[in-house]
Amino acid sequence: MPEPPDPVAALREIAFLMERVLDDPRRVHAFRAASDAIAELPPAQFERRARDGSWRELRGIGESTATVIVQSLAGRVPDRLAELRAQARPLASGGEELLALLRGDLHTHTDASDGSVPAEQSRAVADALGYEYLAITDHSPRLRVANGLSPQRLRAQVERIAVLNREDGPRLLTGIEVDILPDGGLDQAPELLDELEVVVASVHSELRMDSEPMTHRMVAAIADPRTDVLGHCTGRLVTGGRGTRPQSSFDAEVVFEACRRFDVAVEINSRPERADPPDDLLALALETGCLFAIDSDAHAPGQLEFPAYGAARARAAGIPAQRIVNTWPLADLLAWTTSHR
User: Fold this and answer.
1) Predicted confidence (pLDDT) per residue in 78-88, tens digit
2) Nearest 5 degrees, angle CA 245-CA 251-CA 252?
3) Residues 306-323 as b or e (16 or more Cβ within 10 Å = b)
4) How far apart are CA 230 and CA 124, in angstroms?
């Protein structure tokens, strides 16, 4: 029987298991905030609170999280964690062999934009998943609601990633999910995009644009030599806490032919509320001869397991592994993205 986790690990595992099934983000945040609060305690203060049980005096510790701490310190698996472990199931079936071939994830977010944790914590999960690389692709400036990165903040992140890559673990790739502007331009300084290792281009605004201008908009972004991946191409939402949203209207034959011509991968966005592109467009992209990227679009560590959904869809569509760029070794992937600059 495995050893009971320490309180920090127990709280983080609870948050992880909640994230992977899209539990209420506020509840998830409570467990992550509690783990951070006790992880930052000086040893003497931690020991004192362990003796007197004064955990709830700490900011960020509530009844539920205090119970987890107490039960963990008593040498047992906390009840909440045991319950979540018992409920945990594979997220999807049918794509297991393809999922095992994925060497990394090309679309993930950190707390620098609208993700929940720093890159270090995402990297630890990527390591546990056996990944060779993980692209950090936070949002671009125009997406203020998601705390998009200004050129200065992106530069600082690139420098921070260089420091992190001195440590053992999966290679963190510098990147961005850059907003496709209404005129088809990319929402970031061109000289910075030239330096990044992975550029995912996505439409986030004016999703109800008429088909012809939307097609021109998307093709212009695809034709930009800095674009590597076309993110969640239809923008649809099929379920989840944000409600539903119909897919954008565009000429998919033209858009996917542009992806083929300009060597841009079509993202199979694995978020269950997106499942984007839909099955008919996935089949069309395959028939057109496109490359693909199976991405999590993770905004929290537990969501890094979402590619199980994308792999199942890719397998059902008959997409061969060699057409999925994140099954490629790191050197081959970077040779491909570099060829776009």
Assistant:
1) 999 999 999 99
2) 80
3) bbbbbbbbbbeeebebeb
4) 27
Q: Report yes or no on whether pTM surpasses 0.85.
A: yes
Q: Which domains does the chain have, with CATH numbers?
A: 7-87 (1.10.150.110), 96-338 (3.20.20.140)
Residues 6+ apart with CB under 8 A from 199: 175, 176, 178, 186, 193, 226, 227, 228, 229, 337, 340
Q: Residue 180 pLDDT > 90, yes or no?
A: yes
Cβ atoms 279, 317 nearer than 8 A: yes
- Give the list of residues 6+ apart from residue 331 with CB closer than 8 angstroms, or none: none
Tens of pLDDT along 164-176? 999 999 999 999 9
Look up residue 146 and give its two tokens. Answer: 């998601």
Please check the confidence at residue 4 and state whether its pLDDT lies above 80. Answer: no
Angle between helices 211-223 and 252-261 (to 10 degrees): 10
